[in-house]
Amino acid sequence: MSEIVNEAGQTIVRAGTDVVASMAEAFKDDLLSVINSSDGIVVIDLEGVEMVDSVGIGVIIAAHNTLNQVDRKLKVINVKKDVYGLFTTMRLNRRFTVEGVG
Fold this sequence. Notes:
102 residues; alpha/beta; 5 strands
């Protein structure tokens, strides 16, 4: 279960664990719940996340596409260096904001 925090016109979803196939369904459900019950920017906080696999990437892209259809934005923050490299290699940082850790 993700931690969900509403603040200043945005909703933050903290994954809290690696975004991989074994947890992807629950994470997708959390994101859809947030998308359907909030307005404004949706922020995925990957603090403490060491790995995102292809299924996890798919969940994040699906969230972006759903938000984009209703003219809303997705932002992914606190992305570790290796995961950030994956996002930039796939050019996802051109579709939505991706912020690395320090």
